[in-house]
Write a structure and sequence with these properties.
By secondary structure, this protein is an alpha/beta fold. It is built from 4 helices and 5 strands; from the N terminus they run βββββαααα.
Length: about 110
């Protein structure tokens, strides 16, 4: 079992999974898996979401939102604006956008390759 170091003012979103040994200096949004140093997006917590009863279409929407956020070659502000316009309204979308919009430390990085 590995331990993770979490900065005292970091927020960790609901249904997130953090890998052992991860150094967490920025906020971790809801529904994601975070790993590495620095903490980086490594996918959504799809197995955890399935276990908690999330429907496949909700998991698919969450996955697409994060793909858009971290893989669209847009900065976070641009990605948030386009997610708000392009994706259907849902509780999950609102939680993601609200979490990111109220983050004081900023959110973790997208995919990170060392």
């Amino acid at each position: 079992m590995g331990l993770s170091a979490v900065h005292q003012f970091v927020k960790i979103g609901e249904h997130s999974m953090i890998s052992g040994g991860t150094m967490i200096r920025k906020d971790i949004p809801p529904f994601v898996k975070a790993a590495k140093d620095p903490a980086s997006f490594v996918g959504i917590n799809s197995i955890g979401l399935q276990r908690r009863g999330f429907e496949k279409d909700k998991i698919f929407q969450i996955q697409n939102i994060y793909r858009h956020l971290f893989q669209s070659n847009k900065n976070i502000s641009q990605a948030i604006k386009s997610i708000d316009i392009e994706f259907n309204n849902s509780e999950e979308k609102e939680k993601i956008l609200s979490f990111i919009g109220t983050s004081e430390r900023g959110i973790m990085k997208g995919y990170y390759h060392k």
